[in-house]
Amino acid sequence: MTYDVAILGSGPGGYVAAIRAAQLGLKTICIEKSAGFGGTCLNVGCIPSKVLLYDSERSKDFQRMMVRKQEVIAKLAAGIQGLFQKHKVASLQGVGTLIAPHTIDVQGTQVEAKHIILATGSEPISLPFLPFDEQKIISSTGALSLTTVPKKMLVVGAGVIGVELGSVYKRLGSEVTFIEFCDRICPTFDQALSRELLKMLTAQGMNFHLSHKVIQAKGTTLTVQDLTGEKEFTADVVLVAIGRRPYTENLGLQTLGIQKDPKGFIVVDDSFRTHVPHIFAIGDLIDGPMLAHKASIEGTAVAELIAGRRPLVHYACIPSVAYTHPEVAAVGFTEEDLKAKNVPYQSATVPFKANARARCMGEMEGFVKMLVHADTHKLLGVHIIGQEASELIAGATLAMQLGATAEDLAATCY
Ligand code: FAD
After folding, report:
1. Is the CB of residue 295 below 6 angstroms from any atom belonging to ligand 1?
2. Nearest-CA residue for atom 12 of ligand 1
3. Average pLDDT in the 278-286 region?
4. Pseudo-torsion of CA 34, 40, 42, 47, nearest 10°?
5. Does 77 sit in the ligand 1 pocket, CB within 6 Å?
6. For residue 405, is pLDDT > 90?
7. Whose CA is nearest to atom 14 of ligand 1?
8. pLDDT, tens digit, for every residue of 213-238?
9. Each residue of 22-64: pLDDT tens digit?
Protein backbone atom coordinates (compact mmCIF):
# COMPACT_ATOMS: atom_id res chain seq x y z
CA MET A 1 0.00 0.00 0.00
CA THR A 2 1.22 3.53 -0.73
CA TYR A 3 0.45 6.12 1.93
CA ASP A 4 -0.28 9.75 1.13
CA VAL A 5 1.94 10.79 4.03
CA ALA A 6 4.58 8.95 6.07
CA ILE A 7 5.97 10.70 9.12
CA LEU A 8 9.21 9.84 10.86
CA GLY A 9 8.99 10.60 14.57
CA SER A 10 6.00 10.89 16.90
CA GLY A 11 7.01 13.95 18.95
CA PRO A 12 4.81 17.06 19.11
CA GLY A 13 5.80 17.78 15.49
CA GLY A 14 5.21 14.30 14.10
CA TYR A 15 2.10 13.18 15.95
CA VAL A 16 0.30 16.49 15.41
CA ALA A 17 1.18 16.37 11.69
CA ALA A 18 -0.12 12.80 11.52
CA ILE A 19 -3.45 13.60 13.13
CA ARG A 20 -3.96 16.76 11.04
CA ALA A 21 -3.09 14.91 7.82
CA ALA A 22 -5.57 12.15 8.66
CA GLN A 23 -8.26 14.71 9.55
CA LEU A 24 -7.77 16.20 6.09
CA GLY A 25 -8.41 12.82 4.48
CA LEU A 26 -4.83 11.76 3.78
CA LYS A 27 -3.83 8.13 4.29
CA THR A 28 -1.16 8.54 6.98
CA ILE A 29 1.44 6.45 8.81
CA CYS A 30 3.65 7.54 11.71
CA ILE A 31 6.92 5.68 12.26
CA GLU A 32 8.52 5.88 15.71
CA LYS A 33 11.74 4.25 16.81
CA SER A 34 10.98 4.27 20.55
CA ALA A 35 8.49 2.02 22.30
CA GLY A 36 6.16 4.91 23.17
CA PHE A 37 4.70 7.82 21.23
CA GLY A 38 5.24 11.49 22.16
CA GLY A 39 8.93 12.07 21.44
CA THR A 40 11.31 14.05 23.60
CA CYS A 41 8.55 16.33 24.84
CA LEU A 42 6.41 13.64 26.38
CA ASN A 43 9.03 11.10 27.42
CA VAL A 44 12.14 13.02 28.43
CA GLY A 45 11.32 16.71 28.04
CA CYS A 46 8.49 19.15 28.69
CA ILE A 47 6.06 16.81 30.40
CA PRO A 48 8.28 14.98 32.93
CA SER A 49 10.15 18.20 33.74
CA LYS A 50 6.87 20.03 34.36
CA VAL A 51 5.61 17.24 36.62
CA LEU A 52 8.80 17.46 38.70
CA LEU A 53 8.65 21.27 38.76
CA TYR A 54 5.02 21.23 39.88
CA ASP A 55 5.43 18.51 42.49
CA SER A 56 8.72 19.81 43.92
CA GLU A 57 6.99 23.08 44.83
CA ARG A 58 4.49 21.14 46.91
CA SER A 59 6.25 18.08 48.30
CA LYS A 60 9.68 16.65 49.07
CA ASP A 61 8.65 13.06 48.35
CA PHE A 62 11.06 12.35 45.49
CA GLN A 63 10.09 8.69 44.94
CA ARG A 64 6.41 9.59 44.75
CA MET A 65 6.91 12.37 42.24
CA MET A 66 8.99 10.01 40.05
CA VAL A 67 6.12 7.49 40.10
CA ARG A 68 3.56 10.21 39.27
CA LYS A 69 5.79 11.42 36.42
CA GLN A 70 5.70 7.94 34.82
CA GLU A 71 1.94 7.75 35.30
CA VAL A 72 1.45 11.09 33.52
CA ILE A 73 3.70 9.99 30.64
CA ALA A 74 1.85 6.67 30.29
CA LYS A 75 -1.57 8.36 30.28
CA LEU A 76 -0.58 10.95 27.69
CA ALA A 77 1.15 8.36 25.47
CA ALA A 78 -2.03 6.28 25.57
CA GLY A 79 -3.91 9.46 24.62
CA ILE A 80 -1.82 9.83 21.45
CA GLN A 81 -2.40 6.17 20.62
CA GLY A 82 -6.14 6.71 21.11
CA LEU A 83 -6.08 9.74 18.80
CA PHE A 84 -4.19 7.74 16.16
CA GLN A 85 -6.87 5.04 16.32
CA LYS A 86 -9.70 7.56 16.26
CA HIS A 87 -8.31 9.32 13.18
CA LYS A 88 -7.10 6.08 11.52
CA VAL A 89 -3.42 6.98 11.56
CA ALA A 90 -1.37 3.81 11.03
CA SER A 91 1.77 3.41 13.13
CA LEU A 92 4.90 1.34 12.99
CA GLN A 93 7.63 0.92 15.57
CA GLY A 94 11.23 0.96 14.39
CA VAL A 95 14.01 3.17 13.06
CA GLY A 96 12.97 4.65 9.74
CA THR A 97 15.61 5.22 7.04
CA LEU A 98 15.08 6.87 3.66
CA ILE A 99 16.26 4.45 0.99
CA ALA A 100 14.61 5.89 -2.13
CA PRO A 101 12.65 9.10 -2.85
CA HIS A 102 9.32 7.50 -1.84
CA THR A 103 10.54 4.56 0.26
CA ILE A 104 11.37 4.30 3.94
CA ASP A 105 12.96 1.18 5.34
CA VAL A 106 11.77 0.41 8.86
CA GLN A 107 14.11 -2.33 9.99
CA GLY A 108 13.20 -4.63 7.13
CA THR A 109 9.67 -3.41 6.40
CA GLN A 110 9.34 -1.00 3.49
CA VAL A 111 6.87 1.84 3.60
CA GLU A 112 5.94 3.71 0.42
CA ALA A 113 4.58 7.25 0.60
CA LYS A 114 3.79 10.13 -1.77
CA HIS A 115 4.92 12.64 0.84
CA ILE A 116 7.35 12.20 3.75
CA ILE A 117 7.63 14.40 6.83
CA LEU A 118 10.88 14.21 8.81
CA ALA A 119 10.20 14.96 12.48
CA THR A 120 13.00 13.14 14.26
CA GLY A 121 13.71 15.93 16.74
CA SER A 122 16.90 16.58 18.65
CA GLU A 123 19.31 15.16 21.23
CA PRO A 124 21.33 16.70 24.09
CA ILE A 125 24.80 18.04 23.25
CA SER A 126 27.65 16.66 25.38
CA LEU A 127 31.11 18.04 26.04
CA PRO A 128 33.82 15.88 24.43
CA PHE A 129 35.70 15.45 27.73
CA LEU A 130 32.51 14.87 29.73
CA PRO A 131 30.50 12.08 28.04
CA PHE A 132 27.11 11.20 29.53
CA ASP A 133 26.92 8.06 31.65
CA GLU A 134 23.43 9.17 32.84
CA GLN A 135 24.42 8.26 36.43
CA LYS A 136 26.97 10.86 37.50
CA ILE A 137 27.42 12.82 34.28
CA ILE A 138 23.88 13.36 33.15
CA SER A 139 21.91 15.03 30.41
CA SER A 140 18.39 16.35 31.00
CA THR A 141 17.23 12.78 30.28
CA GLY A 142 19.27 11.43 33.22
CA ALA A 143 18.13 14.31 35.44
CA LEU A 144 14.54 13.21 34.92
CA SER A 145 15.21 9.69 36.18
CA LEU A 146 17.74 9.94 39.01
CA THR A 147 17.00 7.45 41.78
CA THR A 148 18.23 9.64 44.66
CA VAL A 149 18.55 13.36 45.25
CA PRO A 150 22.25 14.28 44.97
CA LYS A 151 23.81 16.27 47.81
CA LYS A 152 25.64 18.49 45.39
CA MET A 153 24.79 19.12 41.76
CA LEU A 154 26.79 21.08 39.22
CA VAL A 155 24.78 22.33 36.27
CA VAL A 156 26.80 23.22 33.19
CA GLY A 157 24.66 25.69 31.24
CA ALA A 158 22.08 28.05 32.73
CA GLY A 159 19.61 28.04 29.86
CA VAL A 160 15.93 27.26 30.36
CA ILE A 161 16.39 23.48 30.72
CA GLY A 162 19.30 23.96 33.16
CA VAL A 163 17.51 26.44 35.43
CA GLU A 164 14.28 24.39 35.44
CA LEU A 165 16.00 21.13 36.41
CA GLY A 166 18.39 22.94 38.78
CA SER A 167 15.32 24.44 40.49
CA VAL A 168 13.79 20.97 40.94
CA TYR A 169 16.87 19.59 42.70
CA LYS A 170 17.42 22.76 44.77
CA ARG A 171 13.84 22.45 46.07
CA LEU A 172 14.51 18.79 46.90
CA GLY A 173 17.55 19.75 48.98
CA SER A 174 20.57 19.59 46.62
CA GLU A 175 23.22 22.27 46.70
CA VAL A 176 23.02 23.52 43.12
CA THR A 177 25.80 25.42 41.35
CA PHE A 178 25.62 26.65 37.77
CA ILE A 179 28.61 27.15 35.49
CA GLU A 180 27.59 29.32 32.55
CA PHE A 181 29.76 30.39 29.62
CA CYS A 182 27.67 33.51 28.81
CA ASP A 183 27.57 36.58 31.02
CA ARG A 184 23.86 36.00 31.71
CA ILE A 185 21.40 33.20 32.32
CA CYS A 186 18.65 32.20 29.86
CA PRO A 187 20.15 34.34 27.09
CA THR A 188 17.20 33.91 24.73
CA PHE A 189 15.03 36.04 27.03
CA ASP A 190 15.03 39.85 27.14
CA GLN A 191 18.00 40.93 29.25
CA ALA A 192 15.73 42.49 31.88
CA LEU A 193 14.13 39.09 32.50
CA SER A 194 17.50 37.29 32.63
CA ARG A 195 18.75 39.78 35.19
CA GLU A 196 15.64 39.54 37.38
CA LEU A 197 15.56 35.74 37.21
CA LEU A 198 19.22 35.56 38.22
CA LYS A 199 18.44 37.73 41.26
CA MET A 200 15.47 35.57 42.25
CA LEU A 201 17.15 32.20 41.80
CA THR A 202 20.21 33.44 43.69
CA ALA A 203 17.90 34.52 46.54
CA GLN A 204 16.52 30.95 46.54
CA GLY A 205 20.04 29.70 47.27
CA MET A 206 21.27 28.62 43.85
CA ASN A 207 24.88 29.55 43.01
CA PHE A 208 25.80 31.03 39.64
CA HIS A 209 29.21 31.42 38.04
CA LEU A 210 28.71 33.39 34.83
CA SER A 211 31.36 33.93 32.12
CA HIS A 212 32.93 30.66 33.26
CA LYS A 213 34.03 27.95 30.84
CA VAL A 214 34.41 24.29 31.72
CA ILE A 215 37.67 23.17 30.12
CA GLN A 216 38.39 19.79 31.64
CA ALA A 217 36.86 17.10 33.82
CA LYS A 218 38.03 14.28 36.03
CA GLY A 219 35.01 12.28 37.11
CA THR A 220 32.63 14.81 38.60
CA THR A 221 35.36 17.39 39.27
CA LEU A 222 35.40 20.15 36.68
CA THR A 223 38.19 22.54 35.84
CA VAL A 224 36.63 25.86 35.04
CA GLN A 225 38.21 28.96 33.57
CA ASP A 226 37.28 32.62 33.97
CA LEU A 227 39.17 35.88 33.48
CA THR A 228 41.04 35.40 36.76
CA GLY A 229 42.32 31.92 35.95
CA GLU A 230 41.36 28.30 36.62
CA LYS A 231 39.29 26.84 39.48
CA GLU A 232 37.91 23.44 40.37
CA PHE A 233 34.32 22.60 41.19
CA THR A 234 33.17 19.22 42.42
CA ALA A 235 29.79 17.58 43.00
CA ASP A 236 28.06 14.19 43.23
CA VAL A 237 26.32 14.70 39.91
CA VAL A 238 27.09 16.93 36.92
CA LEU A 239 24.15 17.91 34.73
CA VAL A 240 25.29 19.08 31.30
CA ALA A 241 22.58 21.30 29.80
CA ILE A 242 24.44 23.20 27.10
CA GLY A 243 21.86 22.79 24.37
CA ARG A 244 20.45 20.30 21.91
CA ARG A 245 21.24 19.43 18.31
CA PRO A 246 19.06 18.04 15.53
CA TYR A 247 18.90 14.25 15.44
CA THR A 248 19.47 12.80 11.99
CA GLU A 249 21.24 9.51 12.75
CA ASN A 250 20.27 6.67 10.39
CA LEU A 251 17.81 8.92 8.53
CA GLY A 252 19.51 8.25 5.19
CA LEU A 253 19.66 11.94 4.23
CA GLN A 254 22.75 11.45 2.06
CA THR A 255 21.06 8.80 -0.07
CA LEU A 256 18.63 11.46 -1.32
CA GLY A 257 20.95 14.49 -1.14
CA ILE A 258 18.94 16.22 1.60
CA GLN A 259 21.09 19.02 2.93
CA LYS A 260 21.91 20.21 6.43
CA ASP A 261 23.23 23.61 7.50
CA PRO A 262 26.54 23.92 9.42
CA LYS A 263 24.71 23.41 12.74
CA GLY A 264 23.13 20.18 11.49
CA PHE A 265 19.60 21.55 10.93
CA ILE A 266 17.88 20.24 7.82
CA VAL A 267 17.61 23.02 5.25
CA VAL A 268 14.01 23.74 4.23
CA ASP A 269 12.23 26.48 2.27
CA ASP A 270 9.25 28.56 3.46
CA SER A 271 7.01 25.54 2.86
CA PHE A 272 9.14 23.17 4.99
CA ARG A 273 10.33 21.43 1.82
CA THR A 274 13.83 19.92 1.79
CA HIS A 275 15.86 19.79 -1.41
CA VAL A 276 13.59 16.87 -2.35
CA PRO A 277 10.26 18.66 -2.82
CA HIS A 278 7.95 15.91 -1.53
CA ILE A 279 10.08 15.44 1.62
CA PHE A 280 9.40 17.97 4.40
CA ALA A 281 11.08 18.61 7.76
CA ILE A 282 9.68 20.23 10.91
CA GLY A 283 10.28 20.83 14.61
CA ASP A 284 13.65 20.59 16.33
CA LEU A 285 15.13 19.21 13.09
CA ILE A 286 14.93 22.64 11.43
CA ASP A 287 16.11 26.08 12.44
CA GLY A 288 14.13 28.10 14.98
CA PRO A 289 13.26 27.84 18.66
CA MET A 290 13.41 24.24 19.92
CA LEU A 291 9.94 24.25 21.45
CA ALA A 292 7.14 21.71 21.43
CA HIS A 293 4.41 24.11 20.31
CA LYS A 294 6.64 25.40 17.49
CA ALA A 295 7.04 21.79 16.31
CA SER A 296 3.25 21.26 16.56
CA ILE A 297 2.28 24.38 14.65
CA GLU A 298 4.74 23.39 11.92
CA GLY A 299 3.27 19.86 11.94
CA THR A 300 -0.20 21.28 11.41
CA ALA A 301 1.04 23.65 8.71
CA VAL A 302 2.86 20.98 6.73
CA ALA A 303 -0.13 18.60 6.82
CA GLU A 304 -2.34 21.42 5.54
CA LEU A 305 0.15 22.26 2.79
CA ILE A 306 0.19 18.65 1.61
CA ALA A 307 -3.62 18.72 1.59
CA GLY A 308 -3.52 21.77 -0.68
CA ARG A 309 -4.21 24.51 1.88
CA ARG A 310 -2.15 27.64 2.46
CA PRO A 311 -1.28 27.81 6.15
CA LEU A 312 0.86 30.53 7.69
CA VAL A 313 3.09 30.21 10.76
CA HIS A 314 3.66 33.51 12.60
CA TYR A 315 7.16 32.99 13.90
CA ALA A 316 7.13 36.35 15.70
CA CYS A 317 4.24 35.07 17.83
CA ILE A 318 5.70 31.89 19.31
CA PRO A 319 5.77 32.23 23.10
CA SER A 320 8.38 30.65 25.34
CA VAL A 321 8.34 29.91 29.05
CA ALA A 322 10.75 28.95 31.83
CA TYR A 323 8.71 27.16 34.52
CA THR A 324 10.92 28.37 37.35
CA HIS A 325 9.50 30.08 40.41
CA PRO A 326 8.42 32.64 39.55
CA GLU A 327 7.81 31.80 35.92
CA VAL A 328 9.32 33.66 33.00
CA ALA A 329 7.33 33.99 29.77
CA ALA A 330 7.88 35.95 26.60
CA VAL A 331 6.56 36.47 23.12
CA GLY A 332 7.91 38.57 20.26
CA PHE A 333 11.04 40.63 20.02
CA THR A 334 13.37 41.43 22.93
CA GLU A 335 14.64 44.97 23.43
CA GLU A 336 18.06 43.81 22.22
CA ASP A 337 16.47 42.44 19.01
CA LEU A 338 14.76 45.77 18.31
CA LYS A 339 17.96 47.74 18.93
CA ALA A 340 19.90 45.42 16.62
CA LYS A 341 17.26 45.82 13.89
CA ASN A 342 16.99 49.60 14.39
CA VAL A 343 13.25 49.37 14.96
CA PRO A 344 11.92 52.49 16.74
CA TYR A 345 10.12 51.34 19.88
CA GLN A 346 8.65 52.41 23.19
CA SER A 347 8.95 50.35 26.33
CA ALA A 348 6.81 50.22 29.46
CA THR A 349 7.30 48.13 32.58
CA VAL A 350 4.72 47.49 35.30
CA PRO A 351 5.73 45.71 38.52
CA PHE A 352 3.62 42.84 39.91
CA LYS A 353 3.50 44.63 43.24
CA ALA A 354 1.24 47.26 41.63
CA ASN A 355 -1.28 44.50 40.84
CA ALA A 356 -3.97 43.72 43.42
CA ARG A 357 -4.29 40.04 42.47
CA ALA A 358 -0.53 39.52 42.85
CA ARG A 359 -0.69 41.22 46.25
CA CYS A 360 -3.67 39.04 47.30
CA MET A 361 -1.64 35.95 46.37
CA GLY A 362 1.43 37.27 48.19
CA GLU A 363 3.36 36.88 44.91
CA MET A 364 4.59 40.39 44.26
CA GLU A 365 7.95 39.63 42.67
CA GLY A 366 8.42 40.41 39.02
CA PHE A 367 7.14 42.66 36.27
CA VAL A 368 5.58 42.87 32.84
CA LYS A 369 7.61 44.64 30.17
CA MET A 370 5.89 45.62 26.95
CA LEU A 371 7.55 46.81 23.76
CA VAL A 372 5.53 48.61 21.08
CA HIS A 373 6.43 50.22 17.77
CA ALA A 374 7.13 53.91 18.36
CA ASP A 375 4.97 55.05 15.41
CA THR A 376 2.19 52.46 15.05
CA HIS A 377 2.05 51.37 18.73
CA LYS A 378 1.73 47.76 17.50
CA LEU A 379 2.85 45.21 20.07
CA LEU A 380 6.34 43.98 19.27
CA GLY A 381 7.17 42.02 22.41
CA VAL A 382 5.80 41.14 25.83
CA HIS A 383 8.13 39.89 28.56
CA ILE A 384 6.86 38.71 31.91
CA ILE A 385 8.52 37.43 35.05
CA GLY A 386 6.19 36.64 37.91
CA GLN A 387 3.58 34.24 39.26
CA GLU A 388 1.69 32.45 36.47
CA ALA A 389 3.52 34.30 33.72
CA SER A 390 2.92 31.21 31.56
CA GLU A 391 -0.84 31.85 31.72
CA LEU A 392 -0.58 35.60 31.21
CA ILE A 393 1.54 35.27 28.08
CA ALA A 394 -1.34 33.59 26.23
CA GLY A 395 -3.30 36.86 26.16
CA ALA A 396 -0.27 38.73 24.89
CA THR A 397 0.35 36.09 22.22
CA LEU A 398 -3.23 36.34 20.94
CA ALA A 399 -2.99 40.14 20.90
CA MET A 400 0.23 39.98 18.88
CA GLN A 401 -1.15 37.36 16.52
CA LEU A 402 -4.10 39.69 15.81
CA GLY A 403 -1.81 42.69 15.32
CA ALA A 404 -3.06 44.61 18.37
CA THR A 405 -1.74 48.02 19.41
CA ALA A 406 -1.13 49.33 22.92
CA GLU A 407 -4.42 51.23 22.58
CA ASP A 408 -6.29 48.01 21.71
CA LEU A 409 -5.00 46.46 24.90
CA ALA A 410 -5.89 49.52 26.94
CA ALA A 411 -9.42 49.51 25.51
CA THR A 412 -9.97 45.84 26.39
CA CYS A 413 -12.03 45.11 29.48
CA TYR A 414 -10.27 42.37 31.51
P1 FAD B 1 10.95 15.13 19.32
O2 FAD B 1 9.99 15.43 20.38
O3 FAD B 1 12.39 15.04 19.69
O4 FAD B 1 10.48 13.75 18.67
C5 FAD B 1 11.25 13.09 17.71
C6 FAD B 1 10.86 11.63 17.70
O7 FAD B 1 11.45 11.02 16.56
C8 FAD B 1 11.37 10.84 18.89
O9 FAD B 1 10.31 10.13 19.49
C10 FAD B 1 12.40 9.87 18.31
O11 FAD B 1 12.45 8.63 19.00
C12 FAD B 1 11.88 9.70 16.90
N13 FAD B 1 12.90 9.31 15.92
C14 FAD B 1 14.16 9.80 15.77
N15 FAD B 1 14.76 9.24 14.71
C16 FAD B 1 13.87 8.37 14.18
C17 FAD B 1 13.89 7.50 13.07
N18 FAD B 1 14.96 7.44 12.24
N19 FAD B 1 12.79 6.75 12.82
C20 FAD B 1 11.69 6.83 13.62
N21 FAD B 1 11.62 7.63 14.68
C22 FAD B 1 12.69 8.41 14.96
N23 FAD B 1 9.47 22.65 24.84
C24 FAD B 1 8.44 23.42 25.18
O25 FAD B 1 7.78 23.97 24.32
N26 FAD B 1 8.08 23.62 26.49
C27 FAD B 1 8.77 23.03 27.50
O28 FAD B 1 8.44 23.23 28.68
C29 FAD B 1 9.87 22.21 27.18
N30 FAD B 1 10.59 21.60 28.14
C31 FAD B 1 11.62 20.78 27.81
C32 FAD B 1 12.34 20.16 28.82
C33 FAD B 1 13.39 19.32 28.53
C34 FAD B 1 14.14 18.65 29.64
C35 FAD B 1 13.72 19.08 27.16
C36 FAD B 1 14.85 18.15 26.81
C37 FAD B 1 13.02 19.70 26.14
C38 FAD B 1 11.97 20.55 26.45
N39 FAD B 1 11.24 21.21 25.45
C40 FAD B 1 10.20 22.03 25.80
C41 FAD B 1 11.58 21.06 24.02
C42 FAD B 1 10.66 20.04 23.32
O43 FAD B 1 10.74 18.81 23.98
C44 FAD B 1 11.08 19.89 21.86
O45 FAD B 1 11.14 21.15 21.24
C46 FAD B 1 10.09 19.01 21.12
O47 FAD B 1 10.00 17.73 21.69
C48 FAD B 1 10.49 18.88 19.64
O49 FAD B 1 9.52 18.11 19.00
P50 FAD B 1 9.84 17.29 17.68
O51 FAD B 1 8.55 16.65 17.28
O52 FAD B 1 10.55 18.13 16.71
O53 FAD B 1 10.89 16.15 18.12
Report:
1. yes
2. 9
3. 98
4. 150
5. no
6. yes
7. 120
8. 999 999 999 999 999 999 999 999 99
9. 999 999 999 999 999 999 999 999 999 999 999 999 999 999 9
pTM score, two decimals?
A: 0.98
CA of 141 to the centre of ligand 1 (A): 11
The answer to whether 37 and 80 are in contact (CB under 8 A) is yes
* pLDDT for residue 74: 98
Model pLDDT, residue 1? 86
